[in-house]
Amino acid sequence: MTDTTSGSRAGRNGAAKGKAEAKAKAGAGLTVERIFTTPGVHPYDEVTWARRDVVMTNWRDGSINFEQRGVEFPDFWSVNAVNIVTSKYFRGAVGTPQREWSLKQIIDRVVKTYRAAGEKNGYFGTAADAEIFEHELTYALLHQVFSFNSPVWFNVGTTQPQQVSACFILAVDDSMESILDWYKEEGMIFKGGSGAGLNLSRIRSSKELLSSGGNASGPVSFMRGADASAGTIKSGGATRRAAKMVVLDVDHPDVEAFIETKVKEEEKIRALRDAGFDMDLGGDDITSVQYQNANNSVRVSDEFMQAVEKGEQFGLRARMTGEVIETIDAKGLFRKMAEAAWACADPGIQYDSTINHWHTSPESGRINASNPCSEYMHLDNSSCNLASLNLMKFLRDDDSFDAETFAKVVELVITAMDISICFADFPTEKIGETTRAFRQLGIGYANLGALLMATGHAYDSEGGRAFAGAITSLMTGTAYKRSAELAGVVGPFDGYARNAEPHQRVMRQHAEANDAARRMDDLDTPVWAAATEAWQDVVRLGAKNGFRNAQASVLAPTGTIGLMMDCDTTGVEPDLALVKFKKLVGGGSMQIVNGTVPRALKRLGYQDEQVEAVVAYIGEHGNVVDAPGLRPEHYEVFDCAMGERSISPMGHVRMMSAIQPWISGAISKTVNMPESASIEEVEEIYFEAWKLGVKALAIYRDNCKVGQPLSAKTKSSDEAKAVAPVFAAPAAVTEKVVEYRPVRKRLPKGRPGITTSFTVGGAEGYMTANSYPDDGLGEVFLKMSKQGSTLAGMMDAFSIAVSVGLQYGVPLETYVSKFTNMRFEPAGLTDDPDVRMAQSIVDYIFRRLALDFLPFETRSALGIHSVEERQRHLETGSYEPADEEDVDVEGLAQSAPRAAAAPAPVVIQTATAAPAAPHNTAELLEIQQGINSDAPLCFSCGTKMRRAGSCYLCEGCGSTSGCS
């Protein structure tokens, strides 16, 4: 048993030892190629830097959670990415001179540490190679091409221990000393901001005897103490809460009790809630419930699954002797697992035989467990540091995938990741020894869902799976190729000699799977070709040099770092929804249609006018069903994880199976199921995943958890209304309630205005749009050329109605979204170069008003662009103006609620809760779909979190419930 000081000391001693070994084994050193940078030009000098103010609030009470002004970032970084990095990764006390304030500082802090360690340990051939490495790594981080996992940003280059790993696997034996060590080691890992997993199957069951003659407590009883510890520790201060995984083998005699732990606790929550206790997520009384701080998984073998398939009996074995002490019906136990998962999402399932079939180091021990999110699987008492690539950065303008650049970036990143082990500290000496001996790495990617949509692939399609498989195969093949090259420079990992034969066997398995994979189209075929070449090099170089790393790749949830890279989708997940919630520079937020939708439509052959119409429809309806001009066979391209057309559960499983053969570890993913899903469907998913070669998965059935996301126990009636569920049923109240009605804000006598003449389909007219002096559009007058006609009269009435609405505070964008694309005669060509075709006079009028009065981002989300913007898009691929800062927020003033004189109160007898404003994409989707999901609220800022793999992610502040 060691403390963190000894673990850190062990890390430094290990680094010194690694240096000596590297010098002894060193070859010529690596020659580093340039990918993005230009000789003589630093990456920082190629971007425009801007100062931002970061102020983050808790939406529930308006309190400021974090504030730092004047931070420096590239101008193309989004508000969300700036907020995440500033609040999570800048080091030093806020308000002190030691506090970091620029992205340059944290990139330099990390990259220069990596370069120095690489030079010290013999990785580079020359000083020039080291400088190229530094500049390329800087460029890739600066331009959001990839990101290291969070512990790197927390710790590297600081005075605290240089912990770089996010994922840990512990071990516990059948002794009280080992169990108490487990509690302590797990707690120290949580404190450092990471997560851990372990297998409890070595602990004797409650059906076995102690040496003293009494019955053993069993692993389930010891889980209570660990769960209470995890619930007490908030990792990394308030960075994230403790994340843990508990695994039990299917042949353990206590496996049924393990399966039922959370089901019974859910029943307890219901009973206590009905008795009046606050059992909501984050409620005062929820802490009395046990087993809520861990993900549980049952480790099943091929023997068990075959017994399920055949309807046979299965033996549960004593831990100390291995003899069968109880025989059960395998199918009945499998059914209990499915019932529990259906009821409360736990336990997940891990396929032990499949996992160990792909194990590169079996001579040094089995793979018994995983990290909390199930992507890292390797030896006990080991760790893995992660990095993820942003796949959208490798999509060319012609929609082909840049496999050559992708492979070069993989080589760069895997080199940096391996260097980090030379200087890294670890929470325990045992973990440090195992990690330095086997050097497990976890390169992965994010934005797969966005990439597939942008290239016109449905997530649940043969083409989409082939493209994803090709990219994954190329990534892992290139990573192992570089690992073999590193072995030739600084030597293979210490455990390689003992495991050379099985390691090379697994490499051949990967290569054979690559050769057998199905090629589908012109997008994936070149990537498969590059992957084939990489795996050939892996087999050849591995036989010659060995390998530097026992593991190379995993697919992590990419929660916080996904936000840092401005990714639309996390890890291997599809898009959550087609409509996003975007924060704006200077404050405020807006609803926009996913930027990959227009690109996908163009890839599918739609013209600009058709794209605008579909985007406008999505902005209003949130889905593509019945979108104007969109062919039904293309609907599947726009299927998302939630919404009108959600991807089927088996679609998620099929995607996992398509990429698993080229992942060293596993895939962090939860298979989402609708609330109406049956227990039989859960059984089918668990069974088919085994058949398809998936290593591990978990399911989540909507609303299977009891705890509600919003607490009904509030301090006042006002607060109750503020946090009421978005779609709470109207409740009659007996007391009088004050309702504040809107007040009309009239325009002054003298007002600025614009008069526009127009022709639509031969019908002539004039539009006069008058504005408030400082607050946007206030009235519209429409006159048709034929006075006295019915059309002219209707236009007069219509313009009065719109003007009154504007003066009562109805946002212009609401009118634009409702009236554009409305079809009736007269329609056709116009004399306006910005709006060449109009489907009606009303369609033209509101497109013209949008162009004149709405800011760029708002109307771009509605698919409305000027002729100059469309021309710019043809030339550069972007509609955005050269200086976007000038149009970001100020023009939104007309659509914000106007400050007015105190409104007159009107006393009424009943009231209903007003719909709550969304604060991120998950809440926006709830409003659109009329649902209220049971994802937890963020403990830092109070907004609704959303799933990212097996964990939860807060889009507001970047907090996660996981370990990536």
From TrEMBL:
It catalyses: a 2'-deoxyribonucleoside 5'-diphosphate + [thioredoxin]-disulfide + H2O = a ribonucleoside 5'-diphosphate + [thioredoxin]-dithiol. It is an enzyme of class 1 (oxidoreductase). InterPro entries: RdRp_reductase_class-2, RNR_2_N, RNR_lg_C, RNR_NrdJ/NrdZ, TSCPD_dom. Its EC number is 1.17.4.1. Residues 54-144 form the Ribonucleotide reductase class II vitamin B12-dependent N-terminal domain. Pfam families: Ribonuc_red_2_N, Ribonuc_red_lgC, TSCPD. This is Vitamin B12-dependent ribonucleotide reductase.
